């Protein structure tokens, strides 16, 4: 019986695997997993005893028609070279490496490939995973990937050239938002009227309520601002500061991160092209 393989069990890989298993979208007996640090799989095996733990990457590759690659971007090339002779024309590779295009993966494995950029928020079954498929992926393959990641949040189908900006708005956004709220809270604490725990609780609950309000109603960002800020009021004064100071900050953020993403993508492209020439 063909398995669904997973190679890698780091922070993101373990989150995805546990989320998929807890959702029930895949049966634990269908999965075969390996990682460089096998002791990390002890708790998983205790929770899901029917999951097969493989001794190496080649074993997973040989046994799997669907193969999730959860290793760091820098290790993908080495891994693909190791397992390529054990993949069939039916193998479908699903990987989560940022900056690595499907075109470059095709230089080693010219088969069915899907790229997914998940979000930390999938830990709680929320957020959006970005998904793209190459031309070899058939409808049934695409459906498998999309339904799998829908089990841990929402998905958005994107084009390859949308991953950089899309990642800023999804997978990187929890860090950006947390940084903004941390600075917001730190400034409030300078007034000395609340403890850090009290301030953080108020901000987190308000963030949650605002997100829920936007999601559950037809209100827009602009609607929320208008309803909270009365003309000539205190909130309006604060918004004037944000309107004046924030746009250049976010312009710089997107400019720097997108340039970094493009640089990373180009470096990987050069690496994979050189490999292809050597072959």
UniProtKB/TrEMBL annotation:
The molecule here is called: Pyrroline-5-carboxylate reductase
Query: Keyword annotations for this protein?
Result: Amino-acid biosynthesis, Cytoplasm, NADP, Oxidoreductase, Proline biosynthesis
Annotated residues that bind NADP(+) are located at: 7-12, 35
List the gene name: proC
Provide the GO MF annotations for this entry: pyrroline-5-carboxylate reductase activity
Keyword set includes Oxidoreductase: yes
The protein's enzyme class:
oxidoreductase
Organism encoding this protein: Methanobacterium formicicum (strain DSM 3637 / PP1)
GO cellular component, alphabetical, reads: cytoplasm
Q: What reaction gets catalysed by this protein? A: L-proline + NAD(+) = (S)-1-pyrroline-5-carboxylate + NADH + 2 H(+); L-proline + NADP(+) = (S)-1-pyrroline-5-carboxylate + NADPH + 2 H(+)
Write down the EC number. Answer: 1.5.1.2
The UniProt entry, under InterPro entries, shows: 6-PGluconate_DH-like_C_sf (IPR008927), NAD(P)-bd_dom_sf (IPR036291), P5C_Rdtase_cat_N (IPR028939), P5CR-like_CS (IPR053790), P5CR_dimer (IPR029036), Pyrroline-COOH_reductase (IPR000304)
């Amino acid at each position: 019986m063909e398995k669904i393989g997973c190679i890698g069990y780091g922070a993101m890989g373990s989150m995805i695997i546990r989320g998929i298993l807890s959702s029930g979208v895949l049966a634990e007996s269908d999965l075969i997993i390996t990682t460089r640090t096998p002791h990390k799989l002890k708790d998983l095996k205790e929770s899901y005893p029917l999951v097969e733990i493989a001794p190496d990457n080649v074993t997973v590759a040989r046994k799997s028609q669907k193969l999730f690659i959860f290793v760091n971007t820098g290790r993908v090339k080495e891994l693909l070279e190791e397992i390529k002779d054990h993949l069939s024309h039916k193998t479908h590779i699903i990987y989560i490496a940022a900056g690595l295009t499907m075109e470059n993966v095709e230089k080693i494995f010219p088969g069915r490939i899907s790229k997914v950029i998940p979000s930390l928020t999938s830990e709680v079954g929320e957020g959006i995973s970005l998904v793209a498929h190459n031309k070899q992926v058939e409808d049934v393959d695409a459906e498998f990937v999309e339904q799998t990641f829908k089990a841990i949040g929402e998905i958005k189908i994107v084009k390859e050239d949308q991953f950089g900006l899309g990642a800023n708005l999804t997978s990187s956004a929890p860090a950006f938002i947390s940084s903004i709220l941390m600075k917001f809270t730190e400034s409030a604490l300078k007034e000395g009227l609340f403890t850090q725990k009290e301030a953080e609780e108020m901000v987190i609950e308000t963030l949650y309520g605002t997100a829920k309000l936007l999601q559950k109603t037809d209100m827009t960002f602009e609607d929320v601002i208008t309803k909270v800020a009365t003309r000539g009021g205190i909130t309006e004064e604060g918004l004037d500061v944000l309107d004046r100071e924030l746009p250049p900050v976010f312009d710089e953020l997107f400019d720097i991160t997108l340039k970094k993403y493009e640089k990373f993508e180009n470096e990987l492209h050069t690496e994979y092209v050189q490999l292809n020439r050597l072959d």
